Amino acid sequence: MKRRGLRDRVFWQAETDKLARKEHVHVIDSGGEFPDRWNVPRRSGKEGDGPPYDIGIVASFGKFIPASIINQFPLGMINVHPSLLPKYRGPSPIQTAILNGDYNTGVTIQELHPKVMDGGKILAQVPYSINNETTRLDGMLQLGNVGGELLVRVLKNLDGLRKVAVEQNAAEVTSTRLTVKNDAQIQWDTMTADHIMRMFRAYYGSEPVFSFLRIKNKLKHVQITELDPVDPKIPPINREYLDYPPGSMFFARKIPYVEIVCIDGNRLHGKRFVVSGKASTDYNQFMAGYLRGKKLTKFPRFLT
């Protein structure tokens, strides 16, 4: 972590980078430049002139790579993409699958297209099942393992697979986009409990779902970092909870959660919170610090 002014900047190192350096494989840092300004290093001296690499492999990159880079590799470039293309092209296929409630996704290995993001010929695909507990981080890990195994098989059979590569069906194309912080805001007046839980899982480990709480006429930004669905068999804290608007919260001593009402009549249990960028608090600290006493103008309720 490097200190810059009043803010901390975190530098993240990819596992492939760590492994390559450990095994003394040459690593080139792009320095944050866009791909159209890159140059693939070439051999020089006794080894002769030319590219020292046969093929380029791209995974979870998120930027378009132009033909000027692709053509510098003798065997071109291929991409490991965590969806069954042409479904969910673009930068957020795992999040989108979870948000849409999909149970079937997978991994595609495709040739890099010089003009269309994720639009290359399909070399191989493997389907993979997810469930209603899979988070974004789970999907990254599981599909990463599947993609790694598939990539090894593709590289061993590259010439044969290229002969039977399949063009993507343009009529079946769906696209994803980069997610932004506001995507994680809970709209209590319109979102069901299931919708909110899909959001929670889709953004888990990236942008926590959040809402707002009015305290002393000031709006507090509240992230919910631990959230669980509720089994309908579990009795509610307040038996008349359906008479309260969505986003209303109920709590009681010795009960290890804050119970939140959803528009569809279901409930959610919040267990950890971050208020206005402060330290993470558990349900008990959240209740004591923000829900009890005279800090609230009315009964506690998250606002849309």
Structural class computed from helices and strand pairing? alpha+beta
Percent of residues in helices comes to: 10-25%
Rounded Rg: 24 Å
Gross morphology:
elongated
- Roughly what is the average pLDDT, rounded to an integer? 88
The amount of beta strand, in percent, is 15-25%
Major sheet description: 7 strands, antiparallel
Q: How is this structure best described in words?
A:
It is a single chain. This protein is of the alpha+beta class. The chain contains seven helices and 13 strands. The strands form three sheets. Strands 7, 8, 9, 10, 11, 12 and 13 form a seven-stranded antiparallel beta sheet that branches. Helix 3 runs antiparallel to helix 6.
What topology emerges from the helices and strands here?
Elements: E1 2-4, E2 7-9, H1 15-22, E3 56-59, H2 67-70, E4 77-81, H3 93-99, E5 104-111, E6 122-129, H4 136-156, H5 158-163, H6 193-202, E7 210-215, E8 218-229, E9 249-250, E10 258-261, E11 267-275, E12 281-282, H7 283-291, E13 302-303
